[in-house]
# Entry
Amino acid sequence: MIHDSDRSAPSETTPHSHDHAPRRTTVGPAALARAAGLFRAAGDPARLRLLEILSQGELCVSEVAALTGDDLSAISQRLRILRAEHLVARRREGKHVFYALADSHVADLLRAVLAHASEPAAPHADGD
Amino acid sequence: MIHDSDRSAPSETTPHSHDHAPRRTTVGPAALARAAGLFRAAGDPARLRLLEILSQGELCVSEVAALTGDDLSAISQRLRILRAEHLVARRREGKHVFYALADSHVADLLRAVLAHASEPAAPHADGD
DNA sequence: TATACACTTGAAGAGTTTTGCAAGTGTTAG
DNA sequence: CTAACACTTGCAAAACTCTTCAAGTGTATA
# Structure
């Protein structure tokens, strides 16, 4: 049996609340699912590169295709997935369709993860 | 007809008539790949919930299992994926193995995405 | 040492996703 | 109206991922 005498027991006693929900199982199942979908959409090298490219400015599909060297269909397909998660916004102008990051939150998230990924491995004292 | 301030509408066969900054990779390709892996690891509801749980404090596998009601194996498997992307850190103490978020960057990223996902749909002027 | 406990790992099956090509939609020019 | 251009979507094959169960590793205790 587990004896919690080892250390500060990680008991779920959260005495830092009076009228706010103290024991929220999660931040909200729906929000969690949306967040997971968002991460999953961004969790692909090709799509993440697309986001990174768009973070530098609005571009139309042809321009993106020219930049990455990929097929129009492939770009469009990826953009569709990104758009489904509201990561990018679409704007039509004449024959061209311009894409850009949906909002600054996306750019922020992008910056955060790229910064984290750019850093060398975090220091680990033991077992890694 | 397109309005006055047409952003150099690329109506010709060569749509690269823009005069914006150069478009090379701002982050290294390796960083991009790491970031994608990180997103992909977090892009699963079960794993994201794990991260959210751990953001509240360090826990051992049994405790997590008790909280989520999942099998030890399942938890361990997910934790492994999270650990492979350096999202969580492991610490052994006797028979127990404690997990926690790898660093504050992860907690930050988590907060950012959950905040974004918690918001209602962003207002869209047109095309949605 | 042997046993129980806590966790980890391997492997197979099910389910989901990515990809490439071809056909389809919307828009402007003639 | 027809043609060309820019992009989007459907479909089927291939690739990948998640879950589950059984067996394996490491640690503490009798």
